[in-house]
């Protein structure tokens, strides 16, 4: 939780916000903000969204840090934590491969239309 907490603290300071200013901007209780920044507790996804908006941070990047902290929290006291993480990584790679295989079975006309979604999102500013 420390890396995410340090990131939130640095973002708050770079915005020139005091703790009370952060409360006004985020709607999150001062005690919780302090716990998040000191790595004593993980914010909820709703709180993470509030921080991203108030501090003008990338929500996807914050969410990556948040998920990484959750994983670390699960395995940090395990003697074989590195092995557990390696197994999890191989499982994620397998699932990514399965997803790619499923995409191969989609008819090419549908794949072509799906590939245009990003272009449309960019044009619409989403």
UniProtKB/TrEMBL annotation:
CDD domains: HTH_XRE (cd00093)
InterPro entries, per the entry: Cro/C1-type_HTH (IPR001387), Lambda_DNA-bd_dom_sf (IPR010982)
GO molecular function: DNA binding
Annotated coiled-coil segments of the chain: none
The HTH cro/C1-type domain, residue ranges: 8-62
Pfam families: HTH_31
Name recorded for this polypeptide: Helix-turn-helix protein
Species assigned in the record: Echinicola vietnamensis (strain DSM 17526 / LMG 23754 / KMM 6221)
